[in-house]
């Protein structure tokens, strides 16, 4: 077997067009798989906590040290592109994972590799002499493939089997420098975060090495079950399954439902898209992704990390919908759940409520349709006015505080049909007294229940959402990506540390 065949490749792509105007979300997951026997490296790990059982293991988890290595960028990309990856794109991602995770069995002292080659490259001198890290990630350029980015772990620790060396390829012809555009930067970040999660152990090929709470190899956590009329792969870890049962309101949910389509490298290595549409670790892209408690829970379930769930973003696709949501079978003509839509091409609010989208499906959705986000109708897009009906009434822009509402509001007597709008709003009250105040231009409407409201001087109406559901889900204020470890979240808004800016503190000031 060649050295190349000894490396597990978790390759997948997010196919996007070549400009911001078409930097859309028709991203599909591609992959390549080279069969291998995993490479194990003898490194000194601190496993002393195993002697005290689960409580001691949790108590002694330590700061997770990730070392990014950029030297190969300089030989394969322009200096400006390398600078963007090195100084703007990767650092907030490293900061996020170092803040969101602790490592249970850290490398003792420095990570030191004596082999001459790692990840098909000559081992860097810094890694031969030893570097303060628990995980070492190469960043490299490959502009010759159809992939936007791809990741692999190259080596596992011989003791705990935790990934310790990884590599990320970036296609500089498909992943574009943000040039100050925060939405492009955000999408780039989610692409790279998705890759990082795979490299850290979210993969069908590392599941057999996952550890239980006592540091022993976990058994029986990957199984199959019939869900939604299909046989699906399930990851069943008691703590995580309990979390998902509480989330869905289904006490018999068999565990986390994994993707059953897409072939090797997609199937089982991602969340099932039907139930996790806009979660970062579902297969394929979507504008406005979220890294939820379930991604962090999977990493924690590996037995290698402890997650800080303050860094999980709100996720509510299927929340509280019960077992019937999991067992439902979609058709083009009917749906019992608001998560799905039936009229292809119709306009509504995307699942995360950040903007509008068109009703559509894709090959991984098992025939279901949802309002697929469109950046042109995203409330955070400064250029959203260009495609808006009644732009004088709407509010667009990063951090402007608007959310998606639907309605038929128009300036003509003949109806223009239902579309999406971006209006500023305020949630007040609590419980059954919750209401939503929606600012429509100079007018304000008060939503105390689901229904429609008219606006003086205009035809049609604005749809009022269920106030309690809206304020606890789409309208809930939160700090994106937990301020990536570079700020403090106060009342759902990041207060960035000195030197950083942006709604998530991901940009340098």
Write the layout of secondary structure elements.
Elements: E1 40-41, H1 53-59, E2 62-63, E3 66-69, H2 79-100, E4 101-103, E5 117-118, E6 121-122, H3 125-129, E7 135-141, E8 149-157, E9 163-170, H4 182-200, E10 222-227, E11 230-235, H5 238-248, E12 256-257, H6 293-301, E13 305-307, H7 323-327, E14 347-349, E15 355-360, E16 370-378, E17 402-407, E18 419-428, E19 435-440, E20 443-447, E21 451-453, E22 462-464, H8 467-472, E23 487-490, E24 493-496, E25 500-501, E26 507-508
Parallel strand pairs: 1-8, 3-7, 7-9
Antiparallel strand pairs: 2-4, 4-13, 5-6, 8-9, 10-11, 11-12, 14-15, 15-16, 17-18, 18-19, 19-20, 21-22, 23-24, 25-26
Describe the model:
With 509 residues, the protein is of the alpha+beta class. Among the domains are: 4-209, Elastase, domain 1 (Roll), CATH 3.10.170; 365-472, Roll (Leishmanolysin, domain 4); 478-509, Laminin. Helix content is 17%, strand content 23%. The protein is built from eight helices and 26 strands. The chain has helices at residues 53-59, 79-100, 125-129, 182-200, 238-248, 293-301, 323-327, 467-472; strands at 40-41, 62-63, 66-69, 101-103, 117-118, 121-122, 135-141, 149-157, 163-170, 222-227, 230-235, 256-257, 305-307, 347-349, 355-360, 370-378, 402-407, 419-428, 435-440, 443-447, 451-453, 462-464, 487-490, 493-496, 500-501, 507-508. The strands form nine sheets. A five-stranded mixed β-sheet has the order 1-8-9-7-3. A hairpin with a 2-residue loop joins strand 19 and strand 20. Helix 2 (79-100) packs across helix 4 and helix 5 (238-248) packs antiparallel against helix 6. The longest helix is centred in the first third of the chain and has 22 residues, at 79-100. The termini are far apart. The relative contact order is 0.10.
